[in-house]
Amino acid sequence: MPNLRGAIVPVTPFQQNCAILWDEGSRQALVVDPGGDVERILAAIDQQGVTVQRILLTHGHLDHAGGATELAETLTARAGAKVPIEGPDRRDQFLLDGIAEQAADYGFDARNVTPDNWLAEGDHVTLGEHRFDVLHCPGHTPGHIVFIHHAARFALVGDMLFQGSVGRTDFPYGDHAALITAITTKLLPLGDDFSFLCGHGPGSSIGAERAGNPFLR
Ligand SMILES: [Zn+2]
């Protein structure tokens, strides 16, 4: 789709792909999964000269959500207007409530997150003319969601699907069967020409994963 641009900022010791997406015309932006390293995310925002409207979360894990509260407060203070945190699905609240404690276990600081709006299957988020539809895709976490931009044939899938792999399900409330069901019933039908960005490592396409991902056989 014309006018949709993006930048990736790898954050936290887990090298999580924080995404900044913006409309080239309006320079209005979204930040998806600001897991930490907020100074680096702010630097990338400033480098692109964009104005962040909202912060989106795919799920409640530390490396995806750990910087959200600090980033929202900083951007809200700068803008003089609320920059809300939206998502994930409410079923990940227990993870967001445990971020500070979990971060301490890893030896770094992060704050718990209280989203301004939970997101659920069927919701959508807009950025000017851009529309991101929300699908609930549990398995990696109970409240994991993905963002689908149909016009751009582009998806943000968090830790659900990776190039050649799928999300871990060895965490509390992980569910491998549910994860595979969500991938096969909600992502694969999007179409082989859909490209996606994931939470770690390089992105891929639905077609490439349908053809070659050993977890989908
Ligand atoms: Zn995760």
Describe what you observe in this structure.
This protein has 217 residues and is an alpha+beta fold. 27% of the residues lie in helices and 26% in strands. The protein has helices spanning 38-48, 62-65, 68-79, 93-96, 99-106, 176-187, 206-212; strands spanning 4-11, 16-23, 28-32, 51-56, 85-86, 124-127, 130-136, 145-149, 154-156, 161-162, 165-166, 195-197, 204-205. It has a six-stranded mixed beta sheet with strand order 6-7-8-9-12-13. It has a five-stranded mixed beta sheet with strand order 1-2-3-4-5, covered by helices on one side. The radius of gyration is 16 Å and the shape is globular. The relative contact order is 0.14. The structure holds zinc ion. Zinc ion binds at residues 59, 61, 64, 140, 159.
Please outline the helices and strands:
Elements: E1 4-11, E2 16-23, E3 28-32, H1 38-48, E4 51-56, H2 62-65, H3 68-79, E5 85-86, H4 93-96, H5 99-106, E6 124-127, E7 130-136, E8 145-149, E9 154-156, E10 161-162, E11 165-166, H6 176-187, E12 195-197, E13 204-205, H7 206-212
Parallel strand pairs: 3-4, 4-5, 9-12
Antiparallel strand pairs: 1-2, 2-3, 6-7, 7-8, 8-9, 10-11, 12-13
In whole angstroms, the N-to-C terminal distance is: 31 Å
Helix content: 25-40%
* Radius of gyration, CA atoms, in whole angstroms: 16 Å
Dominant shape: globular
Strand content: 25-35%
Number of distinct helices: 7
Derived from helix and strand composition plus strand pairing, the structural class reads: alpha+beta
The biggest sheet amounts to: 6 strands, mixed
The poorly predicted ranges are none
Task: Give the strand order, joined by hyphens, for the main sheet.
Answer: 6-7-8-9-12-13
Count every beta strand, where a strand is a DSSP E run of 2 or more residues.
13
- Oligomer, anyone? single chain
Give the distinct bound molecules: zinc ion
What string gives the helices and strands in order?
A: EEEHEHHEHHEEEEEEHEEH
In round numbers, the mean pLDDT is 96
